[in-house]
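Project standup — Tuesday

K.O.: blocked on the structure for the chain from last sprint. Re-posting the sequence here as requested.
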Amino acid sequence: MKNLVILGGGYGGVNILQNLIEHNLPEDLYITMIDRNPYHSIKTEFYTIAAGTSADKDVRMDFPEHDKVSYVFNEITKIDTDKQQIVLQERGEPLPYDYLIIGLGCEDNYHGIEGAGEFTESVQTFNRARHAGMAIGNLSAYGKATIVGAGLSGIEVAAEIRESRPDLNIRLLDRGNTVLKAFDRKIQNYVADWFMKNDIEVVHGAKVEYVEKDGVCDNGICYVNDVTIWTAGVRPNYLVRELPLEQDEQEKIIVNDFYQVPEQPNIYVVGDCASSEHSPSAQLARQQGEQIADVLDAVLKGKKPKKPGNLKLKGTLGSLGSSEGFGEMMSQSMVGYIPRLAKSGVLWLNKRH
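H.V.: unblocked you, prediction finished:
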């Protein structure tokens, strides 16, 4: 039997698994997926957990079932590419593999800022988003919450907290001169106006120097607050960064056109861990997952795989609470109710798929 091990049950890993099942698995193949949680979590909605506007069950789904697929719910302590095995926290014997898929996602990048890792909340994992939700939910009236980072995650977290807790004082620290610098001016202005109307303070030109238990110090000014949420950048999972494999300047593993590690082509990398010209996103991981499944299906059946085509990303959608949003769809910038409705529709379709 050949053992295919999938590390991570996120968007990329689950899409690979689902597509392989649909291709009909070879008789001599067995698949093991390893994840810390016994469910697939919808990471794009973790901001609602942090804000307390969604229940846990609303942002998780069951993994697909198949008689040739098993699951190990555990923490990975080491990926041993020399011995081709995975070392787990609560398992005596390492798990061997013939083929490996690395889809462990990302974690916060604190950029070496003192206290950031210790004193901030996060939305990068289900457990940490849940912890952030408890911290926000337990604030007394008129408590102070600061979000560091004004990209898509920071914007959605700040807006959702405002909808959940109208009483709180919310501040957003943005290192640039405008929020959502990756989007066009129409969207930037719309979001800035929304924040102004909804009494969310935005501090531009922020340069966080250090973080303390009760505050954030920026450009010589220390803002006293009760909860600080970090959304100022990500980096690949630390297990991936430790691998003796070639990485790009963002610490992502360099792969060939077939998503294989050139020096070890039985290892495939997907999503936030794989070097790519595109920014990390759930959409990117899903599309890569579909292509990797096609490549693997051919390889496992002894055929020469076709080179995957160019990825065609459809755009980005973001929410401002439950009734407004923004996005770029088919090269068109949209704001207001329509992009928010579109985002809800995408979530609905993904859950039913």
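K.O.: great, moving the ticket to review. The chain has a mean pLDDT of 95. The CA atoms of residues 119 and 213 lie 5 Å apart.
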